[in-house]
Amino acid sequence: MKRLFLSISLLVVSKFSAQGWATEDQYIQKFAKYAVEEMEKYKIPASITLAQGLLETGGGQSRLAQEGKNHFGIKCKEDWTGKTMKHTDDAPNECFRVYDDPRQSYEDHSIFLSTRKYYANLFKLDMKDYRAWATGLKKAGYATNPRYASILITKIEKYRLYEYDNTNSNEVLYAVLKMYPDLKDDRTFMAQLEPSKAGKKAKEPVTVEVPYKQTSYAQQQKRVERIKTKAEILNAILIKSHPNDGLKYIIIPEDTDVKFIANKFKVSESRLMKWNELENETLKKNSIVFLESKNSSGNTATYKAESGENMHDIAQKFGIKLHKLYAKNRMDEGQKPSAGQLIYLIDKKPRN
Length: 352
What we know:
- GO terms for molecular function: amidase activity.
- By secondary structure, this protein is mainly α.
- It has 15 helices and nine strands.
- The chain folds into three domains: 21-179, Lysozyme (Orthogonal Bundle); 230-290, no CATH class; 302-344, LysM domain (Membrane-bound Lytic Murein Transglycosylase D, Chain A), CATH 3.10.350.10.
- The protein has a three-stranded antiparallel beta sheet, with no helix packed on it.
- Helix 2 (23-42) crosses helix 3 and helix 3 (46-57) crosses helix 7 (148-158).
- The radius of gyration is 25 Å and the shape is elongated.
């Protein structure tokens, strides 16, 4: 009788194990959509992001992932102003970033890669060449493990993560379902497909503050929509690579302030003010804002100033530190160029 009971127990356990998902499969099912969303915004292969997440978190089981929602082992660094936690990694009690949600960790990982010079060459690679990206990450010093690139490639090929490089945020859940057909019986997962059936991507809710003004309900609703639309536009800002040595910058699509940009891109307000030589915290539409320190020279020899331009405008346009630009052109700080004036961007202006 005991043998029979044992045999039945083993059969039940083995059947349950066969139908259950491995930890890494569950991780992919849950976070593939984040990786694809980041791919669309920052041009980082979803396969690479997912493989890094799998590796860094041990399939979502690491302490950093569980307690700090940190999926990529990103340390505090000097520019981090958010919550932190201590964790032993390369050394005891190192400082790591803490997030409120894994989605924030995914975006911070994208920002981390796209705003640091030593990763700039990655963005010159074919976005679907995961092997080149894995090798490039190792060469750029992302990890100390000499087998880092091969480990990423193994995970990508084992779980066919390259399939997610060929989808988009509207279709990613269908790609997951294709990989894991048994998810059709998972009500929670299938419920996520409903927004996609209408052919629309489910958007993150946008919280907006609408200043009160005594007016009609219809007019107030229009104001709400206008402000909501502005918030959505600002949340969709993409990081660009400047021709001047790949400096990372953004173009402000709507009037905003330094605090909003600092919070979005996890950079301190003081650094943004310093890097962009700003006199106040207001950022006007179409302003150029750099997310790192500008260079001392431009990438082209000279430029003819346009009517109405000041030296700060030109410094931002070419990614040059403002005081260096004044010095190159033998001008006093605050002095304005005349329309058509030849501005030197690399060498110093010759003496008359």
